[in-house]
Give the backbone structure.
Amino acid sequence: MDRNTIIAIVLSVIVIVVGMTLQTLFMEPQMAAAAASAEVSESADNTELIQQSDDIELFAVGVVDDTSPFSIQTENFDITFNPNGGTISSIKTLKHLENGNPVELLFKETGDPDAFALYYGQGDGFEVNVPFSYSTQTSEDGNLRRIMFTRDFEKADGSGRFTLEKSYTIPNTDEYMMRLDVRAYTEDGSALPLDRGYTISVGPQIGPAFESLGSNYDYRRVEVKYEDNGNKSNARFSRDGVFTADPEETIDWLAISGKYFSFILIPEDVDILSAGADQSMNEEGISQKDTVYISSRGTSSEINDTFYLYAGPKVAENLRLYDNASDNVFDLSDMNLDEVIDGNWLSWLESILKWILQLFYRLIPNYGVAIILLTILIKLLLQPIAKRGMDSTAKMSALAPKIEEIKQKFPDNPEAQNAAMAKLYKEEKISPMGSCIPMFIQFPIFIALYGLLNTNFDLRGSMFIPGWIPDLSVPDTIYTLPFSIPFIGAQIHLLPILYVISMIFSMKITQSTNTAGSQAGMIKFMTYGMPIIFFFIMYNAPSGLLLYWSTVNIISIGQQMLVNRKKKDVYAKEIAEKDAVKEAKKEAKRKNRRK
């Protein structure tokens, strides 16, 4: 071996030794740290602690890559899903607008649970809000969209592993129903570690958004329908804001209802452990929150529960789709969901009036004009009844001189005035309250129209006069004050003012100003006191309702003025003739006595 070869070998050994030394000192620790980090990350992703309670400690197993919320659109819905918990964080109706945008039906604020949140146990349990893996698919006919969320869970000791699936089915048709299937199972068929069951909730409120509630003109309430207990009823909350459904009754559905929209939660073949609702009244944020829930037992080795949710308008045509299996994609029948629509003993009359209103709307596509035409039609139909009251008022006006004589004859004796007045009315066969009787006869029609014009979904968003009454379902606001007036608020509405003025004038022209004694006091109260009371009651009423009442008053004023002008002279002549006859009889008696 020559000298150069030996030098090359020695140098190579030195280079290798030095290189390995440098690699050990600088490179190896970094790689080791990276390996350790990967091991910790994998451990954290594969076993994520959900919650620890007194009786269970659950871990979510597996890795979920995508946890970003995502949306799907159907013919009626724009729904946002949240993989964290496999919930729904937004439900918008594309065919119904609020200020030009789709109505957000799931009204909530930051920190509120999503719809279809799942809790371990009943109420006092914890929310299962870890990330779920998900997949989506569409049925072959394109009518249904399915979104499935899946995650595995196990106990702290690695036992009791089970799979939880939350599968949503959304129709891609003109329907407002959706379905949630909850399935939990173990691979070996062993018992599920869910001995306290689970709870599904929907809330915290039905939209559209609102600032405050407190009148029948806008409200939110919880309703329940039992299978064997007739019609739906309003939930009665305890002082703590808790409603518990009757455990002895089978629940058909629970609902959160507003004036125009409703959430209706329907259990299907669910082994219900308990059901009810929670309500909170708040000074800040959403002033009223209502959350309905249903708890399932979930104690077997497999859970297969189905829940339906109607999330849409309170319109009979949409709700009655689920009374006949052939009319909806889910083959549901006999649901009786239309009971969420507000009704009373005059619903049949309200339906007739609605049909006539829609007929006028088809002739002239403006619901404000249709309301006026409906009002005119009703006044014409009721004219025979109203005529009696108007004739009574005209006759009272003709008696004014005699009434004035009685007042002058007994200026300081109200009792004598009343007695003389009563005798006069009896002789002339009239009633001082005769003009009020037709009003009471027409009262059922007023009630039916109140229900129709206050809650009719067709009026929602319907414009009457641009710039003044853009929406007949809400009050007309012409100005907003920088401060609030007691009992009124900050918004100035013009229609209630016009309504009260027309009501006072209508009452004055249809009542006698010559009534004496206690009757005079009552008439004065009805003329001025009642309109003032109604002003505050009706101040925040929908424009459509006030438009009807104002039109009634204006027509009544015109009718009464016409009758007064034509009939007053006639009645005065009749009274004068009667007086002449009486006087002639008296004169004849006097002559007979002289003889």
User: Anything to note?
Assistant: Residues 1-45 have pLDDT under 50 and may be disordered. Residues 279 and 482 are 32 Å apart (CA to CA). Residues 347-581 form one domain. The chain has two domains: 61-339, 347-581.
